[in-house]
Amino acid sequence: MFNNVLNYLTSNKLVSSYQVDKEPSCYGNELRWKLYNAERQKSSTSGSAAAGPVGDDTSLTVFLFEKKTLDTRQYPKDYRDQILASLHREATVLQRLRHPNILSVIDPLSDERQTMAFVTRRVTQTLGTVLTTDRKQLSLIEVQTGLLDIASALEFLHHANTCHLGLCPSAIFLTPNGRWVLGGLAYSQSPVEPGMQLLK
């Protein structure tokens, strides 16, 4: 099993540019991505490594999706294609957004035969995981501050003419310093006039 995990991590060219923990720091039914703590290889020139402050981060998170989990023997091809498209959209939408309270992409999506992966600044877990495992670890101050963080992110999306449409605990990520950042933008859309269909 360990070798299988290692193969999937190293098979993606983007992931191979980083020193990645062998065990995910966060995963679950509510989150299709597996999150791995990572650090940039000293010799890496991948992505935004030379692009200024964003590329200077050393504590990072790799979002990895293994396509084998959508085996066509268990899932209809149309359903599989929809899931892959939503994951692709989630990563690409995040790439164009820059805000302190929105998940910050360091290296953009790498979509390969077996895996999809992208790299962000370090996050530790989702709010959904915390609420499921031990919600008492969140103090009242942390919750109040976190809600303000997410409100700020949603205000930014509003001014960017974007509706999230998927806000839930698993779309909120916690940073090592306890701040909340918004992700899960797979279903985000621009507002439409009443009676019009949402664009796909």
TrEMBL record:
Pfam name, any one: Pkinase
Protein kinase domain sequence ranges: 40-200
Example GO molecular function: protein kinase activity
Database matches in PANTHER family: SCY1-LIKE PROTEIN 2 (PTHR12984:SF6), SCY1-RELATED S/T PROTEIN KINASE-LIKE (PTHR12984)
Record-given protein name: SCY1-like protein 2
Gene source species: Perkinsus olseni (Perkinsus atlanticus)
